[in-house]
């Protein structure tokens, strides 16, 4: 960031922020700036190998994985899908397999199960990308199919009525090992942990019953206030998932936490709940940013390519940025969106519905993640003035109140014309990862 002035006028501050594959200069009057919301926490001093092996040697709430298994037993390793390839599973999976091999588990008794929820089936090339070259030559990954009733097993029902029906490959194994990444999640509080089971390898009906708990009971009620980033207190989605995990009782969990450089900075393993709680605290230390006040305007970056490849993904920045802006204030989101809206079910929400109520009803009729995130973006635009700086066709958002402009300057002009030039401003270069937390809230 640097300080300058415009034509001898008031001092301005300029920060480079990511959009697409490049950066843009974001300049705001210095007197308007409340601060910069970012968390450049130190990256681990350990190499990725050291982070992984140290975690495996020090599990939380469980013995070492190699001590839990016996020769001749079978192990199902659950792996996130290719949309989460940034977790760098090809780096940590070989160490998990080595620990199993060293304990006498042969390759023939190890199976990899793709936790795709109800995402699309992956290609062999994508499986190889996840496993890495060496493991891909030794193992074949099988993708979960949430609608294949012949390969699903019901283990019971949660107290909230969710059928705990999961993949038969997992239930047939002597041990289930969950893998993934602990990070903020806008419904469950934190991702990773139990999410590898539900939605990861659960039946379609199981996922539907759980995910609809994001919404209030009554039409028009929108998202429950307890269902949000960084919160598990009275959060029914989290509690229901955890209860399902208790019924399944996986043997072991291994989760990573990513650093700002995109590499594995931390890892936790052991009990699927106890170890995950430690991971959540690490995420808070890395990415939670206390603020003293809400701003009138926050200018936020989705994080550049590939995070801003489509508009649906922009929901991540909106979920975080909203916690820094006054009700009725302005969110300016930098998101290129060169591939348009996103999946076809996102199109259904943006193009097929004209009101928030219609969108909410569409989600309740058949819940999918793209549908829900798209609905939430539109609902947020009822509460905040949302302006997107990017290349998406404005016509695709014509049925919403979201504005699209080409430059930050154009967006600021709209915001200043709307609320005056003395409005307070935050800059938020890590919009999809840093989480503002209002002190005392």
Keywords summarizing the entry:
21 strands; 2-enoyl-CoA Hydratase, Chain A, domain 1; 6-stranded parallel beta sheet; single chain; globular; 2 domains; 6-stranded mixed beta sheet; alpha/beta; 14 helices; Rossmann fold; 441 residues
Structure at a glance:
The protein has 441 residues and is of the alpha/beta class.
What features would you describe in this structure?
- Strands 4-20-16-17-18-19 form a six-stranded parallel β-sheet, sandwiched between helices. It has a six-stranded mixed β-sheet with strand order 7-6-5-10-13-14, sandwiched between helices.
- Strand 11 and strand 12 form a beta hairpin.
- The protein is globular.
- The chain is 31% helix and 26% strand.
- It has two domains: 182 residues, LarA, C-terminal domain (2-enoyl-CoA Hydratase, Chain A, domain 1, Alpha-Beta Complex), CATH 3.90.226.30; 238 residues, Rossmann fold (3-Layer(aba) Sandwich), CATH 3.40.50.11440.
- Helix 1 packs across helix 3, helix 11 packs parallel to helix 13 and helix 12 packs antiparallel against helix 13.
- With 441 residues, the chain is of the alpha/beta class.
- The chain contains 14 helices and 21 strands.
Structural domain count: 2
In helices, the fraction of residues equals 25-40%
Proportion of β residues?
Answer: 25-35%
Q: Which structural class do you get from the secondary structure elements?
A: alpha/beta
Q: Please, what is the oligomeric state?
A: single chain
The CATH homologous superfamily of the largest domain is named: LarA, N-terminal domain
Q: Which class of the largest domain in CATH terms?
A: Alpha Beta
The radius of gyration over CA amounts to: 22 Å
Average pLDDT? 93
Numbering strands along the chain, what is their spatial order in the largest sheet? Answer: 4-20-16-17-18-19
Query: How many E strands?
Result: 21
DSSP helical segment count: 14
The CATH architecture designation of the largest domain is 3-Layer(aba) Sandwich
Unreliable stretches (pLDDT < 50, length at least 5) are none
- Per the CATH scheme, the topology name of the largest domain is Rossmann fold
Question: What kind of sheet is the major sheet?
Answer: 6 strands, parallel
Shape: globular
Q: How far apart lie the N and C ends?
A: 29 Å
